[in-house]
């Protein structure tokens, strides 16, 4: 259908409703009133138009949600299903039209957990789990009944009947997107800046032109292929490889692109807008209160966008479907608040400026200036000492957006200000640089200013070029070296400080493992004794009245402890208290057997003090060695414990102590092989701790992630690093997370980016914006590690 272009306006907003699960009518179908406030963890990432059946969305909260049209008024959408099965961020989605196997259609989802899941929409059940990719799944397409998937692992894989049919390395870098053409060929887009056209496993053509990652692809009806790139452009290509059109207008990364049969194009970007294009010209820019991850057309020409604020929005040209005045005003207010939160005046956030009441306070000196907030602007005033009043100077010109902010040194803005650590106990030096400057000239002036040997000149130049992305810099042929008279650098004696110009980081990379090594042993023993007395009696303490202990109380003679057992527990604690003799003290086999008995037989609600003793035993050289014998056989006591305490409705005390047991295992290298082998199940089991309201649980989980990051960096395990990065990013982006936990999550992210193998993955998952948000934290250490991450992100 053709579209007579008019301005798109808000039609409705789709929000997640995790707080309202008590409204469910059956195990998988929920009914919701429109515009209920959703859980903050719902971060919409991907959109899939499911024919006329509805809209599917994916999210960082590990869910896929299916939305259907409200038949009562044909304007709003309500969430009818929530599909749970992924253990990490969910990204690409694909629609299976109704057929004999899927009478109501199906959905295919790919995640950062490396899995591809196939869902039956009629039942809401997961019917297939496809395992094969080593890293995050980034794209899915249907080729007949075959599923085609692409991944950060650079491979393209074909699946049939739940089994992998073939796989091949398709690009030299991460593959970010895939689309099937009406003619049957496949097109992939990659971080290697190219598109490739595939017929079977044969690459027919490579499209070259983008200058950064190709992030999104779409079919342009009757014309060719659309590509969206991190270079800020959208390009239209003929299948022959000819570039037909380039659309430039976004000011940041373009994540997605889609086309309608009418010829209209929509794109979503990091610059917080969805842009509408007609005949290569931007005819409308729809502002959003956050990054626009994805944008898709409905068949009728309406547009669906997924925003980083967690809301999916539908935009329409149909006047009869436009949202009511109340909803439009609410959105306008939200957008205004968001823009104010990002707006800067005089280097300050507008929202941080004082109001006009600040002018009631007299100045302290003539000419003193003060910037106050007046509406959506910052206005400067100067104190007039003679007349004892504030004179209005004028409006302060807005600074650039956060993503365009330039660093300042000595009151001057530069494109870059680098920290240079020259070693030998010298303080870190600041090296300013503008891209318009000649790097040789800058190096000369800086070395003279800092009184450093000119023999370091070439190293400084190479450092500048490397960290500003100027790989192909060519010196001006008219330039003459004032020291050699030549246009080329003439190296002197070998530098004695080969790492002169290296970035300086405050908190990364993390080295060594963190442990939880303090314990209130007397309190632990009292709690065990209290629980044991409960097992010996018919009475239950108040906090256990809601727990079904009948199965355990029936076997209380087997699970309760006698006096000899209690004495032995006291002896174990005595050994643990005497840390000065850890090198020589030993546990008897009977001691360890008693602990194993308690872990296996005691009621789950009573386990946490026993687990706490185990937490300290694994820090004892002999204790951890003896425990190792209990995890090497089929009856793996630690794995069983994790499964037991993380089952449905886990108790915070059990989560806290069990996470700390696993975290402390990192201290001894004899457990590293076990920790690597069970990494997936451990992180999946404890993943719910990210959203726990218990700060101690959050802190323990973040420490577990940080220890895993250190170990996986050492082992060069890219798949494992990707999983830990996913979990750490989830923690780091939430303002409600405890500050210490958030700090450790950020340290894990920075360390993985700096010394691991997942820097590109982190950049693709919005780590720069996460770091920018953290940099604004009032907690100094969070702001500092965020600055470290920003610096790593800038490195080439």
List the helices and strands and how they pair.
Blueprint: E1 9-14, E2 44-50, E3 54-59, E4 63-69, E5 77-84, E6 90-96, E7 106-111, E8 116-120, E9 125-130, E10 137-143, E11 146-151, E12 155-160, E13 163-169, E14 175-180, E15 186-190, E16 194-199, E17 202-208, E18 214-220, E19 224-229, E20 233-237, E21 243-248, E22 254-259, E23 265-269, E24 273-278, E25 281-287, E26 292-297, E27 303-307, E28 312-316, H1 325-342, E29 344-345, E30 348-349, E31 369-374, E32 377-384, E33 389-395, E34 408-409, E35 412-413, E36 416-420, E37 429-433, H2 439-449, H3 457-467, H4 521-535, H5 550-553, H6 556-559, H7 563-577, H8 589-601, H9 608-617, H10 621-628, H11 637-645, H12 652-665, H13 672-677, H14 679-685, H15 695-715, H16 718-732, H17 739-755, H18 759-764, H19 767-775, H20 780-794
Antiparallel strand pairs: 1-28, 2-3, 3-4, 4-5, 6-7, 7-8, 8-9, 10-11, 11-12, 12-13, 14-15, 15-16, 16-17, 18-19, 19-20, 20-21, 22-23, 23-24, 24-25, 26-27, 27-28, 29-30, 31-32, 32-33, 34-35, 36-37
Helix pairs in contact: 2-3, 4-9, 9-12, 11-12, 12-15, 15-16, 15-17, 16-17, 17-20, 19-20
Subcellular location: Cytoplasm
Organism: Sesamum radiatum
WD repeats: 83-129, 168-199, 207-237, 247-278
């Amino acid at each position: 259908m053709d579209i007579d272009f008019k301005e798109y306006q808000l039609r409705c907003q789709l929000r997640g409703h995790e707080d309202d699960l008590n409204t469910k009518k059956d195990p998988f179908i929920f009914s919701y009133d429109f515009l209920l406030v959703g859980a903050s963890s719902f971060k919409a990432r991907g959109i899939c138009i499911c024919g006329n059946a509805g809209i599917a969305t994916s999210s960082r909260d590990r869910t896929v949600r299916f939305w259907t049209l409200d038949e009562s008024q044909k304007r709003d959408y309500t969430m009818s299903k929530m599909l749970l099965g992924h253990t990490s961020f969910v990204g690409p989605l694909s629609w299976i039209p109704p057929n004999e196997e899927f009478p109501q259609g199906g959905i295919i989802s790919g995640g950062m957990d490396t899995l591809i899941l196939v869902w039956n929409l009629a039942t809401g059940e997961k019917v297939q789990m496809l395992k094969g990719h080593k890293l995050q799944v980034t794209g899915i397409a249907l080729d007949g009944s075959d599923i085609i998937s692409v991944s950060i692992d650079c491979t393209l894989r074909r699946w049939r009947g739940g089994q992998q049919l073939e796989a091949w390395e398709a690009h030299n870098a991460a593959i970010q997107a895939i689309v099937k053409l009406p003619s049957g060929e496949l097109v992939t887009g990659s971080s290697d800046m190219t598109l490739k056209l595939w017929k079977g496993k044969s690459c027919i053509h490579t499209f070259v032109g983008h200058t950064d990652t190709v992030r999104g692809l779409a079919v342009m009806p009757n014309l060719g292929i659309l590509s969206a790139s991190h270079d800020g452009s959208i390009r239209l290509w003929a299948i022959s490889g000819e570039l037909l059109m380039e659309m430039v207008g976004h000011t940041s990364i373009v994540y997605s692109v889609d086309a309608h049969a009418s010829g209209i194009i929509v794109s979503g970007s990091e610059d917080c807008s969805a842009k509408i294009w007609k005949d290569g010209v931007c005819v409308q820019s729809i502002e959003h209160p956050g990054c626009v991850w994805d944008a898709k057309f409905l068949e009728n020409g309406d547009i669906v966008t997924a925003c980083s604020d967690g809301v999916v929005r539908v935009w329409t040209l149909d006047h009869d479907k436009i949202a009511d005045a109340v909803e439009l005003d609410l959105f306008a207010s939200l957008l205004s608040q968001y823009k104010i939160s990002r707006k800067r005046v005089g280097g300050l956030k507008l929202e941080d400026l004082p109001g006009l009441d600040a002018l009631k306070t007299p100045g302290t000196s003539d000419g003193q200036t003060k910037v106050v907030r007046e509406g959506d602007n910052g206005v400067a005033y100067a104190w007039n000492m003679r007349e004892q009043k504030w004179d209005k100077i004028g409006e302060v010109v807005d600074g650039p957006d956060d993503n365009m902010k330039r660093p300042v040194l000595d009151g001057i803005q530069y494109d870059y200000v680098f920290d240079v650590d020259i070693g030998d106990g010298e303080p870190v030096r600041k090296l300013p640089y503008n891209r318009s400057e000649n790097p040789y000239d800058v190096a000369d002036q800086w070395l003279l200013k800092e009184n450093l040997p000119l023999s370091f000149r070439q190293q400084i130049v190479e450092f500048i070029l490397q960290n500003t992305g100027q790989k192909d810099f060519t010196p001006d042929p008219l330039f003459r070296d004032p020291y050699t008279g030549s246009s080329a650098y003439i190296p002197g004696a070998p530098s004695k400080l080969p790492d002169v110009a290296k970035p300086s980081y405050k908190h990364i990379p993390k080295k060594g493992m963190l442990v939880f090594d303090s314990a209130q042993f007397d309190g632990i023993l009292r709690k065990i004794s209290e629980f044991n007395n409960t097992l010996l009696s018919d009475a239950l303490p108040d906090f256990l009245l809601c727990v079904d202990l009948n199965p355990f109380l029936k076997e209380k003679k087997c699970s309760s402890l006698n006096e000899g057992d209690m004495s032995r527990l006291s002896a174990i604690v005595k050994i643990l208290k005497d840390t000065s003799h850890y090198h020589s003290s030993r546990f008897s086999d009977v001691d360890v057997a008693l602990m194993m008995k308690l872990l296996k037989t005691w009621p789950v609600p009573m386990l946490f003090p026993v687990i706490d003793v185990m937490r300290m035993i694994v820090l004892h050289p002999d204790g951890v060695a003896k425990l190792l014998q209990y995890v090497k056989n089929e009856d793996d006591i630690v794995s069983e414990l994790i499964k037991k305490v993380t089952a449905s409705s886990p108790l915070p005390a059990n989560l806290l102590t069990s996470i700390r047991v696993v975290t402390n295992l990192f201290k001894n290298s004899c457990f590293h092989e076990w920790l690597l082998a069970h990494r997936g199940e451990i992180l999946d089991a404890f993943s719910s701790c990210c959203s726990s309201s218990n700060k101690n649980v959050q802190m323990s989980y973040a420490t577990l992630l940080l220890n895993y990051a250190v170990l996986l960096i050492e082992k060069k395990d890219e798949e494992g690093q990707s999983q830990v990065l996913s979990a750490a990013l989830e923690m780091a982006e939430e303002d409600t997370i405890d500050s210490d936990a958030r700090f450790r999550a950020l340290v894990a992210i920075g360390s993985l980016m700096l010394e691991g193998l997942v820097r590109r993955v982190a950049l693709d998952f919005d780590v720069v914006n996460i770091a920018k948000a953290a940099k604004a934290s009032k907690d100094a250490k969070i702001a500092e590690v965020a600055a470290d991450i920003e610096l790593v992100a800038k490195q080439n």
